[in-house]
Fold:
Amino acid sequence: MGIEIAIAAIKAVVVILLLLGLAGMLGWVERKGSALIQDRIGANRASIFGFAGAGLVNTLMADPLKFLTKEDLIPAHVDRFLHTLAPCATLFPVVVAFAAIPFGDTVHIAGRAIELQAVNINIGLLYVLAMMSLGVYGVVLGGWASNNRLSLLGGIRGSAQMISYEIGMGLALVSVVMTYGMLDLQGIVRAQGHLIGGWLPAWGVLYQPLACLIFLIAGIAESKRNPFDMPEGESELVSGYFTEYSGIKYLMFFMSDFAEVGLVAGLLATLFFGGWQVPYLLADGFHFPWGATLALPGLIVTLLQVASVMVKVLLFCWLQILIRWTLPRLRYDQLMAFGWKGLLPLALANVLVTAIVVLAVQG
Structure:
């Protein structure tokens, strides 16, 4: 029992550190990436003995130090407990949801089978949706507890937006569940391991391309980033629901946005792009369609699986950052109309078509 607890604790710590590290790196990627897109230099002011590290010192050292040492200002006549709870309620659900994403197959160490997944439950997809839905409470609390009309408006916008786009996201995932017949994220990844026609990897995007697109759009809306950043709306609401936050509380809101980007990227990779699957890689090595094989040690296979999911996550993180700095912000009425009149009918139609196809195949 003690060994099982230790293994679970190690996996949980690794996932938390991985997600928070990814969020920090995405802050740097967004700064330098947006600079490249807009033909700017980007963050380069802070340095150590003249070494700026292409903005790494700014983003990973100077800014965290500033946030951690800055005074925590709390507006007058507010509920101090709720004001403090809001950033925690925003970041915590993302972290625990990310724990359900598998990073590899089962490994055997000292005769013990270990799943490369911090939270291994057979309803993993439902668990992730439940945790993502809790993020709206942090946004609402942040706006309401700030005693600021602009912050309150940002919180109201955020709640309406996140609830609206969660419906389309949920229906897109219903299509995935109908396709694979399970809610287990590890099982869904394993189901994508076979080949179509003997050579094409059976990734989810080939079975559910529309669901993949809907999930990507709804995921960007859930993370409240351009073109869906209405809860912040700097030109209208100063900084929206976290205008009245400073120091480490502001940093938690800031990091939760990038953590959500990582979560959406991880789910995209897991559900639609094979997760830790590498084309033609089995437990004992590569088996190519033309008959050639390449035997590999189990450790190398595991490292390739972990590298596969990490590369896919980073690619989808970069895609979201590229979209954020390419598309203009929607008007609020356009945002809501797009969710209810655009994504929702498409998601419903996709569920209907998927049900018909599944019944035809099973019949």
About this structure: The chain has twelve helices and seven strands. The chain has one domain: 74-362. The beta strands are 106-109, 112-115, 195-196, 200-201, 281-282, 285-287, 293-295. The radius of gyration is 22 Å.
